[in-house]
Write a structure and sequence with these properties.
Subcellular location: Membrane
Number of strands: 9
Main location: membrane
Protein name: Neutral zinc metallopeptidase
Largest sheet: 5 strands, mixed
Keywords: Membrane, Transmembrane, Transmembrane helix
Order of helices and strands: EEEEEHHEEEHHHHHEH
Structural class: alpha+beta
Shape: globular
Membrane topology: Single-pass membrane protein
Length: 307
């Protein structure tokens, strides 16, 4: 979910790490009653290391005034997009795929079924907003040698109209950590990357990237990146919220999903491209509760809400 530029292509990678101390730690959360104990990945050994956003130098963040405001057209696309006016998206009426992450073939089957459900829900919503819908391609790969020019340095990537998912990551989670957490993580990741596809179809992804590239301050560039990424997580929640009755997203599955989105953040990453775990939880759950893209306008949010 960090971003690089390949020609005219915006590449979006999954780079949110689970925030924990070094090593694998058993964690029991407490608070609002929807937490579950779970194993979390190390911040040191996480396979979800981020890629730097395009145009961000490997230096400390400068301070001071930013560049002149981005073009009005790009501002209008991200701030006032027609996507925010369509209301609740329709439920796909799909159930959670029954296959489990026990082999690359089964992982591919899971994601293929899930992608079909995402298409079913988002196609009428995108058309209602006045945009052309097209289904993204899906590549489930092992290792780092997928046949693509995209930089697959993360476990989930949206690049050039294709969603890339790492089977190795899911296999490791299934065999080493909590199988239920593996399922909620798979559901979150595929729907998050699809959120970037929604951004691409509605012009938000390119317009936001345009806004970022003319900002002279690294801190402002990273803020723009976090707005994109938190919106994709919110859109992930929108799909699940729309389909929660049929999926079904309830009981232990929903509790674990809430735990999952609450414990994904980029506090460990000096680049801060994706948002801290508190804001990630808030936006993901806002999308789930509303099932409406209007809940996901991160571009009008105050900086503290997308920190």
């Amino acid at each position: 979910m960090g971003e690089n530029r390949w020609g005219n292509t915006v590449l979006v990678c999954a780079a949110l790490g689970l925030v924990a101390a070094a090593g694998v730690t058993a964690v029991r959360m407490s608070g609002d009653g929807d937490d579950q104990p779970g194993r979390v990945l190390s911040t040191v050994r996480t396979p979800m290391a981020p890629a730097a956003p395009s145009g961000v130098p490997e230096t400390a963040e400068p301070t001071g005034p930013t560049a002149s405001p981005p073009p009005n057209q790009d501002n209008a696309i991200v701030l006032q997009n027609k996507l925010y006016k369509i209301g609740r998206i329709p439920a796909s009426r799909c159930k959670e795929p029954t296959v489990r992450a026990t082999s690359p073939a089964k992982i591919k089957q899971y994601y293929t079924q899930f992608l079909g459900c995402l298409n079913k829900a988002w196609a009428p919503a995108i058309r209602e907003a006045g945009f052309n819908f097209w289904a993204p391609k899906l590549v489930v790969y092992s290792g780092r040698s997928a046949n693509t020019f995209c930089d697959l340095t993360s476990t989930a990537v949206y690049c050039d109209g294709t969603i890339y998912m790492s089977a190795d990551y899911d296999l490791k989670n299934q065999t080493t950590y909590d199988p239920l957490w593996t399922r909620t993580t798979m559901a979150f990741l595929i729907a998050h990357e699809y959120g970037h596809h929604v951004q691409a179809m509605t012009g938000i992804l390119q317009a936001s990237h345009n806004r970022e590239t003319i900002l002279s301050s690294t801190s402002m560039q990273l803020l723009e990146s976090r707005r994109r990424e938190l919106q994709a997580s919110c859109l992930s929640g929108v799909y699940l919220g729309a389909d929660k009755q049929y999926f079904p997203a309830r009981g232990s599955w929903l509790l674990k999903w809430k735990w999952t989105v609450r414990n994904r953040g980029d506090e460990w990453n000096p680049k801060r491209t994706h948002g801290n775990k508190t804001n990630h939880s808030r936006w993901s759950r806002a999308g789930f509760d509303a099932a409406d893209p209007a809940a996901c306008n991160t571009f009008t949010a105050k900086p503290a809400a997308v920190s």
